[in-house]
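Changelog-adjacent note: as of this version, every example in the card shows the full chain rather than a window. The one below runs 592 residues end to end.
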Amino acid sequence: MKPALVEVTQRIRERSAALRRAYLARVQAAIDRPRGPDRLGCANVAHAFAALPAGDKLKIVAERAPNLGVVTAYNDMLSAHQPYEGFPAVIRDEAHKQGATAQVAGGVPAMCDGVTQGFAGMELSLFSRDTIAMGTAIALTHDVFDAALLLGICDKIVPGLLVGALHFGHLPCVFVPAGPMTSGLSNNDKARVREQFALGLVGRDKLLEAESAAYHGPGTCTFYGTANSNQMLMEAMGLHVPGAAFVHPHSPEREALTREAVRTALSIRKGGARFTPIGQLVDERVIVNAMVALLATGGSTNHLIHWVAVARAAGILIDWTDFGDLSKATPLLARVYPNGSADVNQFQSAGGPGFVIRELLDAGLLHADVATVAEGGLRAYGQAPAASGDDGVVRTAAQPFSAEGGLKLLTGNLGRSVIKVSAVPEDRHVIEAPARVFESQEALQAAFKAGELERDVVAVVRFQGPRANGMPELHKLTPPLAVLQGKGFKVALVTDGRMSGASGKVPAAIHASPEALDQGPLARLRDGDLIRLDAVAGTLDALVDAAEWASRVPATIGDAAVDTNEHGLGRELFGGMRRNVLGAEQGACTWL
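Full-length structure tokens:
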């Protein structure tokens, strides 16, 4: 294995030793209990199985047959999750064929960031992850299951399900995806129409026509954002049936994969052929494998928050320095939009996750000696043709797109932040320009429409962190900033908010920590301050005299803005989360 992989894994192991030991002790104590239907009181058991057919009751109670719990994120709002409507029937049918039973233990909320992007609902998006984790816990707290199937795909949903499942670490768990939608209008053409709309060259009718042609049917959106990065990471962690990530929802193979997930869950239950509880499976090596897979594919920046929380749920402590050091040693093997022109269907056709995992294993960049839900270990997830189906989409580790990964840590007097360099042209990796400071994305958009940003500029959008307003994605800022960049100006974004897995070609230093509301460095910035973003050196600095910088009183968000963020569309219900949430580098956890 590559020295960097060994070194980062070892320091994570040492840093996490006490926490992980305590976690595993709790997992083992839960494993050692009698099975739920034998342990619970008669009234409890009667309630648990009251709605089941008589034959299933007999199987579970008298014959002691295994019972699978299903946690589903089905709804009709998310194109990716709409296909889940029919999954429980398939799961029950396959469980019956295997002499087992299955129950939908509970549903979890799943919001579409594409619907809420740029509006008030997006301020609940990050917190929905921990809400999903709690919903998963509520479902599994019925505690009569031998294993669990977790049905989720999109942005916060998979991390939330995973955090929740890891708090039931004694249970074997298999994640069940539903696949991407078929290709529609290309992502590049969609982005072009968005920029034309920002310039006023086309109207809302043309923009809606383009968006509807891009997002047009059941399945995951086809760009390589957070949702599809989730699926790549689930493969690299060995939590899917191998190859399940990017098969279309209505392909015959999709139902076969779902049925195989049922058989897999039964085989890894306690008393099965290969008992593999999720809390033991997800160790520091598996977390590192997920980090490497993210970096090798130029995946979503959101996972520098989410996987910190996932690791913490398993008693493992990681930080952005770990990501940064791994990125220096991880070659970029994939170019999928926004890192390239291909969509995930083209990625799958060119070799997909299997090709990437195989290449990383052969290059000594993944831990091969890990447990997975599939028999055969991680090698089972690396089945792919010897050659790439399209070397403009995926490449070998010997001939990568870049010697380093797609994400980079930035440090300096503006704190710690991250940038997705894989999508940014190399001539834009270093930007030095005066700051224009905003306290909302709406203010930046208004300044753009008024023609106030027609120059070299580093747009700073602050008070967008977890405690300020739930750390919304600011993806609506991509079109206007891209327009300015297209005019030849040097442009960058600096924010304590998020830019999503769809972060584009404009350099964006995001997740700036500590956040401005906690008197982080962004609160000291003023209009006109010269800012240098250097993605080559890994630095982010305000070029202000050190004495003057230290003497500045941090700005505070106005009372009116706080009132706006705290009320409306259910935001009042998340006030406790805003008050208690940890910083972005601590995973924006609300449960610690």
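Structural remarks: The first strand starts at residue 67 and ends at 72.
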